[in-house]
Predict the structure.
Amino acid sequence: MDILIQNLINALALGGTYALLALGLALVFSIMGLINLAHGELMTIGAYALYFMILWAFPFWLALVGALLCAVVAAVLMERVAFRPVRDASMATMLLTSFAVSAILQVAYQNLISPRPLPVAMPSFLGGAVEIGSLQVGMIQLLALGCTAALLLLLVWVFRYTAFGVAMRAAAEDFDTTRLMGIRANALFAGAFALSGLLAGVAALFWVAQRGSVDPLMGFLPVLKAFIAVIVGGLGSLVGAVAGGFLLGAIEIALRALLPSDLLPYRDALSLLLIILVLLVRPQGLMGRRREGVR
Amino acid sequence: MLSVSGLTVSYGAVLALRGVSLEVGRGELVALLGPNGAGKTSTLGALMGLCRAGGAVCLDGEALLGRAPEKIVRLGMTLVPEGRRVFGGLTVEENLRLGGAVQRDEAARRRQYAEVYALFPVLEERSGQLAGSLSGGEQQQLAIARALMSGPRLLLLDEPSLGLAPKVVDTIFGLIDRLRASGLTILLVEQNVDRSLEIADRGYVLVGGEIVLAGTAGELLQSQDVQRAYLGLAS
Ligand SMILES: Nc1ncnc2c1ncn2[C@@H]1O[C@H](COP(=O)(O)OP(=O)(O)OP(=O)(O)O)[C@@H](O)[C@H]1O
Ligand SMILES: [Mg+2]
């Protein structure tokens, strides 16, 4: 029983991180038609910002805020500098542009900061565990879980009740018609990127807190998983992306817990196999619309 | 109010509009008629800044070509797009709220809601429902109501009767007639020639990207050429 709850918490914490990343990817994709391969580099920027601010002895809370802010600003700049000029171009052009941005940033991190992982000195209380009854829950997992839940609730509120949120949902559904409502295209792009940057920043904090280090390629793996989550959830569906993230987290943790130890090295392959099965049953993804096209 | 001259639109090598000129006067209801693929939607797209175009478009002396759709809406011209294009995953109320996004003044927005709900009572009944769950006729009403929320001086309608049952078409045309009676200027794109000319002041017939006929609604209704234009015998 305890093991089950322990694994459930792990699954929700990991799935929540994937969900945040996937939501950012889905938002940008559904509004701009851009598959942002440089999303992981936004995570990495946030993580480096955290590293340096802790190194320069800023208070921890300020370092957290700084890291988030840095990811948001980087995302908005990325849209402004790299993606806006190609926004009317074909999907392939945009994809290649994002690939280039990703490669440039990775090389920049390697040459300007360090090619090796840098240890991030997280405060010691994060390493601890909390006892709930007979249960030992890692502090980081607990915080990740709580923060993700709070953030998702906040986003539900924003998407439902604020003018910004309603416009974002509309634009994700039908971009041109949203412009016909008098809503500025540039504001929509900037908003989508700012939000996706914020989500990548939060995910970066959880990722670094668990691993204790940051390296130039740090964003690759989690964002790859987030892409899978977006596809499983249904390309273009925001709720689907979140659901896909949690599903992927659950599958990974379940495999880690259930597989005999000699099969453990194959767990990523097995989780992808399960994903393929999901897609065989529902090719449009969990929440995908069966309509043709995305716009 | 609206004056269009020499409007051209091309998609790659295909010339969809070959110099369309038309006028819409204040308070008029003008019909733009034409068969499938004539270039009606392209004309409206060019007016709204949705597709790149050549020529000149003036709204009350303000040049529109090259401006973004969001800017043109703010200048007082709004489009009800072909196929309705309501936001299916949003509620009726949210659709309307988006339509009124350009209204900065809260009092004006309230007035606009009241006006729209008075005109479309069914939308008030269904305000909390997802727009995607409405019937075709209700969605068309929502699309028109949403466009009215921005308080336009000139309303562009792209085939509002498309795919609707005859009785629903009656309702929609009745509504358009009422809007005109309330003083709104309207450019109505339609394939339903007779119904459109019944309520229109004037009309243009567009075939193959060119205006082949223009006149008052009465003249066009009498004219054999309109029927011929549709059969592709004209020009
Ligand atoms: N996005 C596009 N790419 C290429 N060609 C297009 C595009 N949109 C329209 N066309 C072509 O331009 C011409 C005019 O199309 P348009 O949609 O303006 O006609 P329409 O009068 O609105 O027709 P319908 O009554 O079917 O709505 C057609 O020949 C069409 O095939
Ligand atoms: Mg058309």
